[in-house]
Design a protein that fits this description.
Blueprint lengths: L8 H16 L9 H7 L1 H11 L4 H10 L4 H12 L17 E6 L59 H6 L29 H10 L2 H12 L8 E14 L8 E18 L7 E10 L3 H13 L16 H8 L1 H9 L6 H20 L5 H5 L3 H6 L1
Antiparallel strand pairs: 1-2, 2-3, 3-4
Helix pairs in contact: 2-4, 3-4, 3-5, 4-5, 7-9, 8-9
Length: 384
C-alpha cells in the first residue's frame, strides 16, 4: 500500500455515499425499478447479458440500475457475479433453424420461405425526437400497467423457418461448415484464459463477449477497404430458441426453457482455386436478446479473422486475431485504462527524480537543456 493513501477509508466510505446519491438522483422523482429497466430498456439489457456472458434479464437490469446506466460497469458487475455461480449441466447446442421468429430479414433474397418479418426495428424510423414520449402517462389517459396501444396480431410464422444460407448450400455455392473430426469440445473462455493460435470456436466466444462499439468500428473498417471483405447480410433473425439438456439419469434431451437470440449470417467474398470451384464464404454472429448491430459486427469481424485459413493476405487490423481478441474485451480494457486514476505517486516520483537528474547532468556538462533544444534558432524563425 502506498504510504500516501493510508487513512483514506473514511473518504472512500463517503465516496460510496456520494455514489448512492448520484445514482438515486432527485428524491422527488419516483425511483426507477428493476422491472421498468427490464421491460423498457430491452436493448441495453440484451447488451449487458451478451457481454456479461450471463442470460438473466432481471440480473442484467439490476446491474444497469446499480451502475447508474453505465453499461460497461453493468457488464463488469454481471461477469463478477457469474463467477460465483456453480455449473450444473451443459446444454445441447441450440438449433436456430427452429427459432420462433419475431424478426427475420434477408438482404440477399427478396422472396423466401416464411417471408420477411420486419418486426420491431428502428431501421425505418426517421430519427426525429418524439416529444410525446416525454408527456406524463397519466395525462395521456394511460394507467400504469396498461398498454399504450392494442397489440397488433402478427402474421402466422412457420414453427421451423429454414435458414437462407441453406439454399445456397444446397447448390454448393457457399462453403459448407463441416463438423471437425471427432466433434471436439470447444474451449471455454469463461473458465480458461485466451490463448493463441485461437481456433474459430474460441474466437467466436471472444467476439460474443466483445465490446459492441469496438467490434462495430472494426466491422466498419472492413467495409472501407481495410480487409478483403465484400459482405451481404444473408439473414438476420431474432426470436426464441429452446434450450435442452441431457440429464445422466435420463439419457435423452429435455427442454428446460427458451432464450432470446439474434443470429446473423453474412455472405462474403467468394474464394476458389484450380482444384475447387468458387464459393461464397461465411461470417457468423450471435448475441443474447435483440442485438442486431452486435451480431452483424461480429459476423463481419469473424469473416475478417478467417483470412489465414482462407489463404488471404493479412494486412488490416480486423484480420489480426491477437490485436482484435486482446482488445475486444471491454471489462479488461476498462480496467487497464481506468487504473490510471488510482494512485501512482511512487512511480511518478521515481520518474520525476530521474528526469531532474538527467537535466542536472546535462547542465553540468554544458549541454543545452530540453527547453533550449525545443526553442527554434533565429535562422529557423526567419525561414518560417
Amino acid at each position: 500500500m502506498y504510504v500516501a493513501v493510508k487513512g483514506g477509508e473514511k473518504a472512500i466510505e463517503q465516496s460510496y455515499e456520494a455514489l448512492a446519491r448520484m445514482r438515486r438522483g432527485d428524491p422527488a422523482v419516483p425511483e426507477l425499478s428493476v422491472a421498468q429497466i427490464r421491460e423498457q430498456l430491452p436493448l441495453a439489457v440484451a447488451r449487458v447479458m451478451s457481454e456479461g456472458s450471463l442470460y438473466d434479464h432481471d440480473l442484467a437490469a439490476l446491474a444497469i440500475k446499480q451502475a447508474g446506466g453505465d453499461l460497461l460497469e453493468a457488464i463488469f458487475l454481471l461477469r463478477a457475479y457469474r463467477t460465483t455461480l456453480p455449473r450444473l449441466l451443459s446444454t445441447v447446442p441450440v438449433d436456430t433453424a427452429r427459432m420462433v421468429i419475431e424478426r427475420r430479414i434477408s438482404a440477399t433474397f427478396k422472396d423466401l420461405p416464411g417471408g420477411q418479418v420486419l418486426g420491431a426495428t428502428y431501421d425505418y424510423t426517421q430519427r426525429l425526437l418524439d416529444f410525446s414520449l416525454a408527456a406524463d402517462a397519466g395525462a395521456r389517459g394511460i394507467e400504469p400497467g396498461d398498454a399504450a396501444a392494442p397489440p397488433v396480431n402478427p402474421l402466422p410464422i412457420p414453427p421451423a423457418t429454414p435458414r437462407v444460407l441453406d439454399f445456397l448450400n444446397k447448390e454448393g455455392l457457399i462453403e459448407e461448415e463441416a463438423i471437425p473430426p471427432g466433434d471436439p469440445q470447444p474451449a471455454d473462455l469463461t473458465r480458461e484464459p485466451l490463448h493463441f493460435p485461437a481456433d474459430r470456436p474460441l474466437r467466436l466466444q471472444s467476439l460474443a463477449r466483445g465490446d459492441e462499439g469496438f467490434l462495430l468500428g472494426l466491422a466498419y473498417s472492413t467495409q472501407r477497404g481495410y480487409a478483403r471483405n465484400h459482405p451481404f447480410a444473408g439473414e438476420i433473425r431474432y426470436g426464441k430458441v429452446a434450450v435442452e439438456v441431457v440429464p445422466e439419469e435420463l439419457g435423452f434431451a429435455i427442454e428446460i426453457g427458451d432464450i432470446e437470440l439474434t443470429e446473423c449470417q453474412m455472405v462474403n467474398q467468394f474464394a476458389g482455386s484450380h482444384a475447387e470451384p468458387a464459393k461464397f464464404t461465411r461470417g457468423y454472429g450471435l448475441a443474447f436478446g435483440h442485438g442486431e448491430r452486435k451480431a452483424m459486427a461480429m459476423g463481419l469481424v469473424d469473416r475478417a479473422l478467417r483470412a489465414q485459413e482462407l489463404d488471404e493476405e493479412i494486412g488490416a487490423p480486423a484480420q489480426m486475431a491477437e490485436f482484435v481478441l486482446y482488445h475486444a474485451d471491454n471489462v479488461e480494457a476498462s480496467g487497464f485504462v481506468q487504473h490510471l486514476k488510482l494512485p501512482h505517486y511512487v512511480d511518478f516520483q521515481s520518474e520525476l527524480n530521474l528526469i531532474r537528474g538527467l537535466r542536472r547532468e546535462a547542465n553540468a556538462a554544458g549541454k543545452p537543456g530540453d527547453a533550449d533544444v525545443a526553442k527554434p534558432s533565429t535562422s529557423d524563425q526567419k525561414a518560417a
